[in-house]
């Protein structure tokens, strides 16, 4: 009985050690993923600003990024849509769901 108990304790200690190693590995992976997401968000923001800095309306004035959003459809088309239309579409989609 003692031998089985000691073996069980040793197995549990080994499991704890393995889980701690796995936890550290997952923490590192999470940290790397978070950094990667932050970099991608920054790149997306830079791209968004760059696109809006080049856009002009019919009178040649810059398009205000506070009033419009960039919408990419599933077929690859890109549209500039007024924000108030996007919000109403989202409400309709949420109501349908």
> Order of strands in the sheet with the most strands?
1-2
- Rg (C-alpha, Å): 26 Å
Domain count: the total is 2
**Class per helix and strand makeup:** mainly alpha
Fraction of residues in β-strands: 5-15%
Count of DSSP strands: 2
InterPro entries: NFE2-like (IPR047167)
GO molecular function, one term: DNA-binding transcription factor activity, RNA polymerase II-specific
Organism: Fregata magnificens (Magnificent frigatebird)
Protein name: NF2L3 factor
Summary of the model, kept short:
The chain has 97 residues and is mostly helical. The protein has 2 domains: 1-54; 59-96, no CATH class. The chain has helices at residues 2-54, 83-96; strands at residues 68-72, 78-82.
Descriptive labels:
NFE2-like, two-stranded antiparallel sheet, DNA-binding transcription factor activity, RNA polymerase II-specific, 2 strands, RNA polymerase II cis-regulatory region sequence-specific DNA binding, single chain, mainly alpha, 2 helices, rod-shaped, 97 residues, 2 domains, 69% helix
């Amino acid at each position: 009985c003692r031998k089985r108990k000691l073996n069980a304790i040793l197995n549990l200690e080994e499991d704890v050690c393995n889980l701690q190693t796995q936890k550290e590995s997952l923490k590192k992976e999470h940290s790397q993923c978070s950094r990667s997401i932050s970099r991608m968000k920054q790149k997306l923001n830079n791209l968004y600003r760059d696109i809006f800095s080049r856009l002009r309306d019919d009178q040649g004035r810059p398009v205000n990024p506070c009033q419009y959003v960039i919408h990419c459809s599933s077929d690859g088309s890109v549209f500039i849509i007024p924000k108030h239309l996007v919000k109403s579409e989202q409400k309709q989609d949420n109501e349908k769901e």
